[in-house]
Amino acid sequence: MPYDIPLPDAATKTQQFQTLYSGNTKGLSFPRNEILEILGQPNCTGIRIYFGLNDSARPKDITVVIVGVKDNGSGDFLQAVDMINTGNKIKNSGNPCPPNCSLPANDLNR
């Protein structure tokens, strides 16, 4: 499965989301060291991103939960490493956009 997509395709996907969910969180950014901390866990070969809400009373406050996963040998990342070893990292609470959006607006954030 190819993971790369061209910018116009990425822009279409984000713009469709932002139109359908106007006023919602558009995205979250995480510092490099936070992502590398997950990837540096034993047996971790990738990440999985779950979508969630910070508070069910605020349905526009979308967040993500990021966990490390390991390849089961077939290229499928089916097993979360956070369930294998206690103490493995789970990340949340990135810098939300808005208000922390790219300025000026770009193809992914209008």
Radius of gyration: 16 Å
Helicity, as a percent range: 10-25%
* Mean pLDDT across all amino acids: 77
For the terminal residues, how far apart are their CA atoms? 29 Å
General form: globular
How many domains, as an integer? 1
Number of helices: 2
Low-confidence segments, ≥5 residues, pLDDT <50? Answer: none
State which percent range the strand residues make up: 25-35%
Classification by helices and strands: alpha+beta
List the helices and strands in order.
Answer: HEHEEEEE
Biggest beta sheet summary: 4 strands, antiparallel
Number of strands: 6
Question: What does it look like?
Answer:
The mean pLDDT is 77. Strands 2, 3, 4 and 5 form a four-stranded antiparallel β-sheet that branches. The chain has a two-stranded antiparallel ribbon with strand order 1-6. It has helices at residues 7-20, 32-39; strands at residues 27-29, 46-53, 62-71, 77-80, 90-91, 95-97. The protein is globular and about 40 Å long. The protein has one domain (30-110). The chain is α+β, with helices and mostly antiparallel strands and 110 residues long.
